[in-house]
Amino acid sequence: MTKIIIEHKAKIVEGKIIPSNINRFRNDLSNLENQEVSIKIEKWVKRRTDAQNRALHLYLTLLSTDLNLKGFDMRAIIRKDINIDWSPISAKEYLWRPIQKTLFQKKSTTKLTTQEINEIYDNLNRVIIERTGGEVQIPFPSVEVLFNEDL
Question: Whole-model pTM?
């Protein structure tokens, strides 16, 4: 028995499968008439967008700058034996990435969905607020934040 794979993109609306290309879908169905088939449904999730990636790196820059300006070096946030100023790279590696790995078991930010970025930020922001006594609170960059607030 040979396995033939036929793929179609579709949306599910009110419990019904709506193919993106209905004519191709109908043609493929007619070729399968009276045959036993297996149907697999995969959900596609959005990866982080380019804008979200830029916002993430801007956030890490703003966070590391504010932590340094307010005297919260790595010793104050992570470990007592590390007396090093923050950089966007160290903020990513020592603050962002451990939360990312814990929550989603993903090593690279390129593999994150838009929702996962939000969840990591929420957790990291809460930790930073707790450990700085509320002195460091950086909103995640967005067009609204950048135009309405002084960072």
Answer: 0.60
